[in-house]
Write a structure and sequence with these properties.
The complex is a heterotrimer of chains A (384), B (320) and C (326). With 320 residues, chain B is mostly helical. In chain B, 63% of the residues lie in helices and 0% in strands. Chain B is built from 13 helices and no strands. Chain B starts with 9 loop residues before the first helix and ends in a 31-residue tail after the last helix. Helix content of chain C is 75%, strand content 0%. In chain C, helix 1 runs antiparallel to helix 13, helix 8 packs across helix 10 and helix 9 packs antiparallel against helix 10. Classes of the chains: A alpha/beta (384), B mainly alpha (320), C mainly alpha (326).
Chain lengths: 384, 320, 326
């Protein structure tokens, strides 16, 4: 049973590795939050046509940590991050909750900024300096008629006014080198670069102002597997060097295991499970997480049988009354069709799951597939 | 195969209303006309009155009758020219896009040449050589106008066809051995319906402009009544400078209204083709009710309820 | 540069088509209008001029069609566009008088209209949903009004009724043509109303086209990224507008032809001494050499304008520069 996982398996040990040292290098206490999302809900439209795309999500991300958000398309994972940065397009609107970004200024003072109530000019100050974004398609995220150098230049010009033109150029060259690109790329246009180069440019631009938080919205999905692999490992190295916190969105759980400290799995707009990366990978608790793990081959390590998840995600315009995963769930009980489970901690391991199987009061038996104990290797993930 | 369900926006409804009105006028206008438009039986230059709603010309003709009778020739020419031009652009555009290679190069070159030649001056040259009896024939004029108006549609349709050429349903039709002509005009063409409709509206608009222009400079038979010849006679008799607005303003307004109707309907088609042009999600009324800003602003996702109720701190935050 | 060469090739071909149309058309029509025309020539034209007209149609000697065609091309190459039968002067020298007026009038109004329409369209697209949207039906109406009709109304209201602008002609009778201040001032004053008329008729087209493209561009990721980067609003708008203007420029080839056709008739309304006014006279008098000459000049000017637009497009869009094809 999940409750029997010994305390020492909690992934605190890995924090003593890379992340802790970089956190210290930045002069920031490790446990300080960089982002707090509190009962956050997002709708598309209002009235009869309203669709609740994100419902009541609560998340907390600490400095220099990586949070992976996984889910199928339409699970609300992208909507969540766009809405929380107030970048979500119409007809999306925030229907409740709060988002607090803890902004560190140059003097090292930390100020909480409520993004939900922030004005346009407040948002403009926070954007890119403190939170930057990398999109799935770098080709569409780069202005097709501008040279790559302009992407760096305008960001630096806007937020670092004291820099001269030559200094801006030098900084751009430095950033490009960091992602393994030659400075001659600065004078190229986006269409002249390969997909991998473009995505590296996007990452370099995202790091230009040394932000506390970088959001990666499926940055590697459009790339081939080899490039994908390279970029993931480069991201790990960059994070070790600069200590930014990261939210990494993907539908590929096996990728997150490589990179993330924690993983939140979203389904139909809600978080259904959240746990340390290795634990979640080794020992999923939610039936949906189990299904996701069986949908992708792991990047390395043991092979799993790919079974996928039968059925399709629910129509969010007409969500099921009970658990939204119940119609596709192999372990569904009578109760699942009527009552919606909420996200509760399972045992004392700090992981939580929204599933009736783990409700002690219901007395149901947790299936074997969902009650495995993570291997000891989980605790040493930080060194891989 | 997609149908063409126009978005029901006020613009489209207004446009369809205007077009409907003028189509009715085209059909029954000549019967409604109170007098013979050519009859010079009345006093010259009467101002509008209950007998002559739009007054009379300097020859004593009833202007209102001319307007009603003139609708038919104007609309028929525009429609004939629009339909023939769209048919031409469909055949040329789809063939070029689907066949590719040498036929594509040739047809593309042909349409580029026709695009580059200014259409109306070419029309004027052609028309000036026409014998007078051909100039009074709406169908001949319509055909000539269509010759100068097909190229734009062909270019757009070629591009659209090329994007469809390798779709599964076309591939499937090829595999089961359907003939090229069948694939082009039974498989591909129906998928280009919105583009075809848009191109039809544009060529009709162009044709009205071209026809009226020809008539205005006296290159159609001045004995056939259309809105352009009305303007021709008004200009020839110095109506604008003599303040006889009732003579030349009504045909001008009618031409502009038909054009407005066509353009408004085209807004709907544009929105159908390009979903980004559709008004997204919230109506103006919903926005007001929810105290949201009047328009959606990029990078400022609106927040419902100005003062969110304070909530308890989360108990299940990420691993402590 | 390869693309410019290709476009230049296309325009040369187009010019050749126009030239050839001028040769073929008179021969296609029943009763051969050229013979009729020459028969109609009155005594005010000298025998030498009749010969020039015959030559300009390729009818120099009794030869076959091919030889006639080459005679025609040769004459054209030497600037012989024939002699106007009503004005009794060589078509080329008549055109030399009137073409500058037309290029000045249409050139200025087209540039102003394009710039104003594009800027207004960009703003309309960006502020979509605001109260400025109510401009759209009005703009649509103006887009549909024939140029010459709008010109007529302008002439009537602001010229002959309100007397805000001088009407009819390109300069006042008192001014002596030349580079003197009173003449230039008079030209500007007389040009105002025609220019405004052409701008009013053509600006809505640019504006609505730009608005649509702007809305499409605002939906692109790179514009969202510009916002995410915390750029000032002005810069975000520029990101979108810079890309949205490209289709407008690409469509110039179609639009220039339409604008020129419309604007020619505005000259006619205002008795402006340009090519448009000349064209009407020529049409009324069945002055075929003049009609054909005007058609050629208009076509060549429009082609030159197209070439300029192509070069501008090439400068603005790096993608076309590197793709050798198209």
């Amino acid at each position: 049973m999940s409750a029997t996982i010994p305390r020492e398996h909690e992934p605190t040990a890995l924090d003593d590795g890379v992340t802790a040292s970089t956190g210290a290098a930045r002069g920031v206490a490790r446990r300080e939050p960089v982002l707090e999302i509190d009962h956050f809900s997002v709708d598309y439209g209002v009235g009869e046509n309203m669709v609740r795309a994100v419902s009541d999500v609560t998340l907390r991300l600490e400095r220099s940590r990586v949070l992976g958000i996984a889910g199928e398309s339409g699970s609300g994972k992208s909507t969540l991050v766009y809405a929380m940065t107030r970048l979500l397009r119409s007809p999306g609107l925030i229907s409740g909750g709060e988002v607090t970004l803890h902004v560190t200024d140059e003097a090292g003072t930390v100020t909480p900024v409520n993004l939900v109530s922030a004005t346009e000019s407040e948002l403009r100050k926070v954007r890119w300096s403190h939170v930057s974004i990398v999109l799935q398609s770098a080709l569409s995220a780069l202005n097709p008629v501008l040279r790559i150098g302009r992407e760096f230049d305008e960001v630096l010009k806007t937020h670092r006014r004291h820099l001269t033109k030559a200094q801006r150029r030098a900084r751009a060259v430095e950033l490009l080198r960091m992602v393994g690109l030659n400075e001659d790329r600065l004078d190229r246009y986006p269409h002249e670069l390969s997909g991998g180069q473009r995505q590296r440019v996007m990452i370099a631009v995202a790091l230009a102002l040394d932000p506390e938080l970088v959001i990666m919205d499926e940055p590697t999905t459009a790339l081939d597997v080899v490039t994908q692999r390279e970029i993931i490992s480069e991201l790990g190295a960059l994070r070790a060097q600069f200590g930014f916190a990261m939210i990494f969105i993907t539908h590929d759980l096996s990728l997150l295991v490589e990179l993330a400290d924690e993983i939140a799995v979203m389904y139909a707009g809600s978080i259904v499970e959240r746990a340390g990366a290795r634990e979640l990978y080794e020992a999923p608790r939610h039936p949906y997480t189990l299904g996701l793990l069986h949908s992708f081959p792991p990047l390395h390590g043991e092979r799993r049988e790919l079974t996928g998840i039968p059925g399709t995600p629910p129509d969010l315009a007409d969500p099921p009354t009970g658990c939204s995963f119940a119609p596709r769930c192999a372990f569904a009980m009578d109760r699942c069709a009527n009552d919606k489970p909420s996200l509760v901690e399972v045992g004392d391991t700090g992981r939580s799951v929204a599933c009736w199987l783990f409700d002690d009061a219901s007395g149901s038996r947790v299936p074997v597939a969902l009650s495995r104990v993570p291997s000891r290797a989980a605790t040493t993930k930080g060194e891989t | 195969m997609r149908g063409l369900a126009l978005p029901r926006s006020p613009k489209v409804i207004l446009g369809l209303g205007i077009l409907g009105f003028f189509i009715v006028m085209t059909v029954i206008g000549p019967w409604l006309a109170p007098y013979d438009p050519s009859s010079t039986a009345f006093t010259a230059l009467l101002t509008p009155s209950s007998h002559h709603w739009l007054g009379t010309t300097s020859l004593g003709q009833d202007i209102f009758s001319q307007l009603l009778v003139g609708a038919r020739a104007t609309m028929v020419v525009a429609l004939v020219a629009g339909l023939v031009a769209t048919l031409l652009s469909m055949i040329i555009g789809i063939s070029a896009g689907y066949l590719g290679g040498v036929p594509d190069d040739g047809l593309t070159l042909l349409s580029n040449v026709f695009l580059a030649i200014p259409g109306v001056p070419l029309l004027i040259v052609i028309d000036s050589y026409l014998p007078v009896n051909s100039r009074s024939n709406e169908f001949v004029i319509g055909l000539i106008i269509s010759l100068t108006g097909w190229a734009w549609g062909a270019r757009v349709l070629r591009a659209q066809t090329m994007s469809l050429r390798n779709r599964d349903f076309v591939e499937a039709a090829r595999i089961i051995g359907e003939s090229r002509r069948r694939i082009m005009f039974s498989e591909i063409a129906p998928n280009l319906l919105p583009v075809l409709a848009s191109s039809l509206l544009f060529t009709v608009l162009y044709s009205i402009g071209a026809y009226v222009t020809l008539a205005y400079i006296g290159l159609t038979s001045t004995a056939t009544w259309n809105w352009g010849t009305m303007l021709y006679w008004a200009q020839a008799n110095n109506a604008p400078l003599s303040n006889e607005w009732y003579w030349f303003v009504p045909p001008g307004i009618c031409i502009a209204l038909v054009g407005t109707g066509l353009a408004l309907v085209n807004f709907g088609i544009d929105e159908f083709i390009n979903p980004r042009l559709r008004a997204a999600g919230l109506t103006a009324r919903q926005r007001r009710q929810l105290h949201l800003p009047r328009r959606a602003r990029l990078g400022l996702t609106p927040v419902l309820s100005a003062t969110p109720a304070p909530r308890p701190r989360p108990t299940n935050a990420v691993a402590k | 540069m390869r693309i410019v060469a290709r476009r230049l090739g296309l325009y040369l071909l187009t010019a050749w088509v126009a030239v050839t149309a001028n040769f073929i058309l008179p021969r296609l029509m029943p009763g051969n209008p050229v013979q009729t025309l020459i028969g109609k020539i009155t005594s005010q034209v000298t025998p030498a001029e009749i010969r020039a007209i015959r030559l300009s149609f390729g009818l120099g000697f009794k030869e076959g069609l091919v030889a006639q065609y080459f005679t025609y091309l040769g004459q054209l190459f030497h600037g012989n566009l024939g002699v106007s039968i009503t004005l009794g002067a060589p078509v080329s020298s008549i055109l030399r008088e009137s073409v500058p007026w037309t290029i000045g009038l249409i050139g200025i109004s087209t540039v102003v209209s394009f710039v104003v329409g594009t800027v207004a369209g960009a703003m309309l697209g960006w502020t979509r949903g605001s109260r400025f949207d109510s401009l759209i039906p009005t703009a649509t109406f103006f887009q549909a009004v024939p140029y010459f009709f709008l010109g007529t109304v302008m002439l009537l209201v602001f010229g002959s009724n309100l007397h805000w602008f001088p009407v009819l002609g390109a300069y006042s009778q008192g001014a002596t043509p030349g580079w003197n201040w009173s003449f230039v001032a008079s030209v500007i004053r007389y040009g105002e109303l025609p220019v405004i008329s052409i701008i009013l008729s053509s600006v809505a087209g640019w504006m609505l086209g730009m608005r649509n493209m702007m809305i499409t561009m605002v939906g692109e990721d790179f514009v969202l990224m510009a916002v995410a980067k915390g750029l000032p609003r002005r810069k975000v708008i520029m990101h979108a507008a810079r890309n949205a203007v490209l289709p407008s420029i690409a469509n110039l080839s179609l639009a220039i032809g339409l604008v020129v056709s419309g604007a020619l008739l505005v000259e006619l309304v205002f008795n402006y001494p340009g090519v448009g006014d000349l064209l009407l006279q020529a049409v009324l008098n069945e002055d075929y050499p003049l009609i054909q000459g005007i058609f050629l000049v208009i076509t060549l000017t429009v082609l030159a304008a197209n070439l300029i637009a192509d070069v501008v497009y090439l400068v603005l869009d790096p993608r076309t520069r590197s793709e050798a094809a198209v």
